[in-house]
Amino acid sequence: MGREPRHRGTWSAQRIGCLVLIILVIALGSGLGLLVTAKNRLLGIHEEPRITSLIYPTLGNPAIVRKGDSLTLEFDPRMSEFELPFKEMKDFVVKATTSNDKVPLVVTMPVQNVATGASTRWPEYAATPGQDRRIMLVTVVVPRSMPADLYDLSIKARKGRLSLWLSDSQPHALSTIDGFKDDFSFVQMTDIHVWGQEIYYPSCTYQERSRRPNGKDPTRKGAVYYQKAIDQVNTMKPDFVVFSGDYMFGQRYFTQDNGPPWGETTEYEYEMLWFYQETMKLDVPVFMTIGNHDGYFEDQDAAGEDWFTNWRELFGPLYHTYDYGPYHFLSINSMDWAASDRTLTNLFDIILSPTKYKGQVQAGGDAMKPGYSQQQLNAIDDSKLTGQLAWMRDDLAAHQDARMRICVMHHDPWKLEGSGEMWGAPSTDPGLQKGLKQIMGEVLDTGNGTGRLAAVKLMKEDKVALTISGHDHSDSYGSTPWYSGGGEVKFVNTTSTQFQSDTVEKKYPGYRRIWIRDGKVVSYNYADPKWSYPFYSGTNVGGDTDLSTLHDPAISQTVEPATGESQQVKVIVRNTLVKPLTAAYTKLRMPDLHSGYYYRVDGGSFGEVYDVGGGKNASRNYQVYTDVPAGMEKTVSVHESAAPDTHAPTGTISINGGTRSTRSAVVTLTLRATDTGGSGLKDMMISNSPGFEGAQWANYASQEPWALAPGAAGVRTVYVKFRDTAMPPNVSAVSRASITFAPPK
Q: Which letter, b or e, does each residue of 466-489 get, where b requires 16 or more Cβ atoms within 10 Å of its Cβ?
């Protein structure tokens, strides 16, 4: 069976049994070399991993897939315990459930193929010669009938009919879309640093923070600043989100009693699971890159865990690639240090600190030297690169046909014209402006990592268009031309999501919204030359801001009423930015109507519309969009129609533009439909059979690729019907078109 979550903070029979077993093993002198105490055995992520058998897609490495396309899931029945014998699984069942919906839609995804093989999503997973690391590769079809939305995935299988089911799931792992766009945007967030006001860190504000919510105390609001950031991202509804590291802090204590329901936990476990919990509120897919705070090694005074391992058990690979259609992304681990360099120690009883936390990418690259020159780059031999640098080299070379290549890493290798300050060079800030962290870094030698210019050289050679990063909580921009000409690598570093302090600062909580159009980066600044978008209204972008006065989010929305039971709902969207907010988004669950009535929208437009629930829970989800000008407020109203729609839609179909014959079994359908009753077209059903056996309703589209019925040459007929959004819907008469299938001999 899949690993069940274990609840901490109470002494269950299972916990007592584990403790007794450990004591007995030690007492009997078994020689197993247990290095942790009984107390520590009950702490840590290794007691509750979130990635077990379903290793792709995951929360931190999701899949964005067009409806109608296939998706290959990676399923590891041994849960990475590769010393166990490998046994193939069968009878796979895969389901998708809409994320964050009170009444979710559940879709069974047809299994197209099952095979064994190596992981293509975890570069480290299949990188051990001589070890059997086979997994199951399960290819499923994303049905055309699935609404474009964010989904949790579940999968189960067994070895034989009499075997128990092995099951696993991943939240927010799949985003379905109608098609990839060449004009799209994504949001970059970095340095979120979730911790509560109960933990003191010098120079950091506690505004917009409180203790982690526990479901009992209403005064515990949690990481309020992060919640407001998530609400704004959900309203903006970018195509996806990229996180570039540092999601918690984890440098104040080893273990602590954090109260019910958590009990005694490590700081790492408490804060990272808190971040995980809050991130579940996002309604868009998020791709995560590891930062330095996310990759430390705990001392035995904590759970003794390597957070490289825990990262894999929570989010996915340490480094990997992902794609948005023809746009190729590399997620790079710039905290690429050995475990001994990442081990936390108690520094002067002030803060837990590792030996190294600045940038490094291994191996075979350049030793750390400040600055940048062509001579330094020429001295790097690409053929001698190993480890992550070799993976980066080979992956970029293999994706030169991509529309664009984008790198995401926590430490900027270029900031300040290649100075190398995030790798270990002295800060360029003068005198008292030099930060305490930078001074400590220089005194304690927390950097001087390798591979900085090797990474830059690969980006120049292989035409990387954009590299985004975080780490030092500041905005910056720089660029260097490609070797082949025709473009440049843009290095964009972004401020933190968290507050910097409660004083007057030029830095502020912010994010990037990056726009790509026709293979070009067209926008990455809120204000030139480098400034991020602000998360808070009242931010003086480019100037000084009193951070203690910030409270109201820059973008917000209110839904009145928000119960999902009213037949009239108002959505009020406020945009205090100096830039317009296009396609502001909300999803409304509206109760079923009857007698042909339907819902109308004023001040906006409907996107995807689909039915959920049944019986007393029957309702309909409406995705609603509106444009809000800069500095304005917009009200959108969704309400019952004044009159019913009793007229059925009408429509036609043609195959390959009306040609008489085809040599290919895959054709293009052209569909034309109208609805004169007022409610509007909702969907269509297509089939090769007049009885529509096994067919499903899918979004209306004017063109659709289609596979004709198999068999010998002859006439093929395709049937279609349409329906509108009235409740219940009006369904059109069946339309049909025929073509002669004449395959080549």
A: bbbbbbbbbbbbbebebeeeebbb
Please name the residue that has the structure tokens 């247990």: 34
Edge-first strand listing for the sheet containing 619-628: 581-591, 619-628, 605-612
d(CA 319, CA 585): 32
CA distances, 202 to each of 434, 437, 489, 577 (Å): 15, 11, 36, 31
pLDDT digits 0-9 by tens, 73-96: 999 999 989 999 999 999 999 999
Among 229, 241, 165, residue whose Cα is nearest residue 194: 229
Which of 23-32, 411-420, 731-740 is predicted least confidently? 23-32
| CA distances in angstroms from 407 to 7, 460, 722, listed in the order given | 38, 12, 44
If you write DSSP's letter for every residue of 603-671 in order, what string do you get?
A: SSEEEEEEEE--GGG-EEEEEEEEEE-TTEEEEEEEEE-SS------EEEEEEGGG-SEESSSEEEEEE
Q: Read off the CATH number of the domain in which 719 is found.
A: 2.60.40.10
| Structure token digits, residue 562 | 């928000």
| pLDDT score of 124 | 83
Q: Is residue 735 assigned to a domain? A: yes
Helix (H) or strand (E) holding 279: helix 267-279
Do the domain assignments include residue 501?
no
Are 10 and 69 found together in one domain? no
Closest CA to 371 of 317, 415, 437: 415
Residue 407: closest CA among 420, 388, 426: 388
Confidence of residue 41 (pLDDT cuts 50, 70, 90): very low
CA distance 634 to 575: 8
**How would you label 326-350 residue by residue, b for 16+ Cβ within 10 Å and e otherwise?**
ebbbbbbbbbbbeeebbbbeeeeee
Cα–Cα distance between 172 and 98 in angstroms, integer? 8
Q: pTM for this one?
A: 0.91
Helix (H, G, I), strand (E, B) or coil at 696: coil
Q: Which of 177, 210, 226 is the last residue of a domain?
A: 177
What pLDDT, in 10s, does the model give residues 344-396? 999 877 889 999 999 999 999 999 998 999 999 999 999 999 999 999 999 99
Residue 472 in any domain: the answer is yes
How many separate domains does the chain show?
Answer: 5
- Specify burial of residue 167 (Cβ count, 10 A radius: 0-12, 13-18, 19+): middle
Question: Which residue range(s) make up the domain with 38?
Answer: 1-42
708 assigned to some structural domain:
yes
Contact 481, 494 (CB under 8 A): no
